Prior knowledge:
By secondary structure, the protein is α+β, with helices and mostly antiparallel strands. It has helices at residues 2-35, 41-45, 49-64, 77-114, 118-149, 152-162, 165-175, 177-192, 233-237, 264-276, 309-330, 358-362; strands at residues 200-203, 206-213, 217-222, 227-231, 241-242, 250-258, 281-293, 298-306. The chain folds into 3 domains: 2-167; 181-242, SH3 type barrels (Roll), CATH 2.30.30; 250-334, Alpha-Beta Plaits (2-Layer Sandwich), CATH 3.30.70. The longest helix has 38 residues, at 77-114. The protein is elongated. Mean pLDDT is 76; it is low at 161-165, 170-177 and 352-363.
Amino acid sequence: MEDVLRPVVVIGGAVLLTLILVWLTDRALRRIDAAHPETPLWGLLRRCRIPLQVALCAALLRGSFGQAGLKSADKHAAGIGQALTLVLIAAAAWLVIRAAAAIVESSYSRYAASGRDAARVRRVRTQVTLIQRVVTAVVVVVAAASMLLTFPEMRAVGTSMLASAGLLGIVAGIAAQSTLGNLFAGLQIAFGDMVRIGDTVVVDGEWGTVEEITLTFLTVRTWDERRITMPVSYFTGKPFENWSRGGAQMTGTVFFHLDHGAPVEKMRQRLLEILQECPEWDGRSWSLVVTDTTPSTIVVRALATARDADTLWTVRCEVRERMLEWLQAEHAYALPRISTSPAPTGTPLPDRGREPGPEAARG
């Protein structure tokens, strides 16, 4: 009877104790979160329940398995202990990653709620995202190395490999030169404030918004919802346009090719009326001037400002459409025309392809 009750008590007690401890921890986090709603950390830490359960249960079973008295498992005690150790290491790494993600997300949420500078908020978001990815990568590598070192065979292999670590490092560095370059470029972008998540950029003639930045690649979402994925080393080695750096405010132009008789002063007044009725115009600046002339047309440039690139595009389209509509309705003569004249009639043209006859020679 003892051979049956003892394993049940040991294993069941470990599972029951795990459930009780996790329930108490979750209840405490819930109460703290309700008492401090301004800090989202406590609510985010509740996401660690599952890895905490697995880690606690594996630790308790690893420590008490020898007391269970399972005679049938004595032959496999080493294998079971090894498996529990691997599960414990994996669960601990999972728990650390979840906790780090909660801390980073909580810090960013509090900063974003109190920050008034949108550009600085995007910069912090880029940095914390890359920091979280670095932490995750480091934890995974350490956990994988720890799991491998639990095997006696791997310890011997690791000891023999230390002698040739220098040569292997050189070979790995040459083989992974591009990857390491992207890695350091990602860190340079994160802390050098070159480009941030949410910035409006122009890369290789494509206009879009930075959607994701990792340690190796960067994703730009274009205006037509395409995704352009580029290595981060591109942004450290080639020039690109960042319309959001130094402020998102922008100035845009609209060009009109019109007849020489176009009413420029009336167009100037009409432009102001259009902008005053356009909610996207930020009111900073506007103008309308003649910038060029040709034998058949003049070039009129309308200038307007907006708070960012997206609203500037709307302002430019609004000005272009409404100005053309007004010109067609009230000043159609101002639209460009191609002047032609009819060919002369009644006068015969000389026949240059015909040789003179004998009559012309005698005359």
